Amino acid sequence: MSESSVVASSAPPEVVKLPEISSSGVYPRKRVHKWKYWYKQATPEAPMVVRLLHRAGVRSAHLHLASLASVGLCLTLWIRAKTVDQEQRGNAERRALFVGLWPPTLWLIGDSLESPSNVG
Fold first, then answer.
1. Which residues pair with 32 in a beta bridge?
2. Are 59 and 51 in contact (CB under 8 A)?
3. Alpha carbon 90 to chain centroid distance?
4. Average model confidence (pLDDT) for the chain?
5. What is the span of the domain harbouring residue 102?
6. pTM for the whole thing?
7. Looking at the predicted structure, is the pLDDT value of residue 116 above 70?
8. Among candidates 46, 65, 63, which has minimal Cα distance to 109?
9. DSSP code per residue over 14-81
10. For residue 58, which of 104, 102, 116, 114 has the smallest C-alpha distance?
């Protein structure tokens, strides 16, 4: 490929302007370049999962207690993993580690339910 065939374009990339609809509850969109994905701006509305959990009657105390219970379950599974034979020990330890990922997730969802602005 010769140097003459490579042409540097100094023109800016095309920008697509999307309609902004905020009164109907649709997230307003930003201007994005045509080769990038469209994305949504953050809005003051509560996330859908938090609203659904609140409407279902789940409160922050429920998720905080579930978080503490999952710590106990993780410790129980980890101790039990030490009692099984060597062939099954790997799966038992992985199961305990998987359950060990639940507490921070449940605790943070409970924190988001605690704030009245997130309930909607």
1. 16
2. no
3. 28
4. 75
5. 3-118
6. 0.57
7. no
8. 63
9. PEEPPPP--TTSPPPB--EETTSPP-BPP-SSPPHHHHHHHHTT--HHHHHHHHHHHHHHHHHHHHHH
10. 114
Q: Inter-axis angle of helices 86-99 and 60-81, to 10 degrees? A: 160
Q: Check if the beta carbon of residue 106 is closer than 8 Å to that of residue 70.
A: yes
Higher pLDDT, 90 or 11: 90
* Cβ partners under 8 Å of residue 108, min gap 6: none
Number of separate domains in the chain: 1
pLDDT on residue 41: 44
User: For 108, which DSSP code?
Assistant: H
| DSSP three-state, residue 86 | helix
Q: What is the pLDDT of residues 15-48, one digit of tens each?
A: 656 555 555 555 555 554 444 444 444 445 557 8
pLDDT grade, residue 113 (50/70/90)?
confident
Is the CA virtual torsion 36, 37, 38, 42 positive or negative? negative
Residue 103 · residue 64 · CB < 8 Å: no
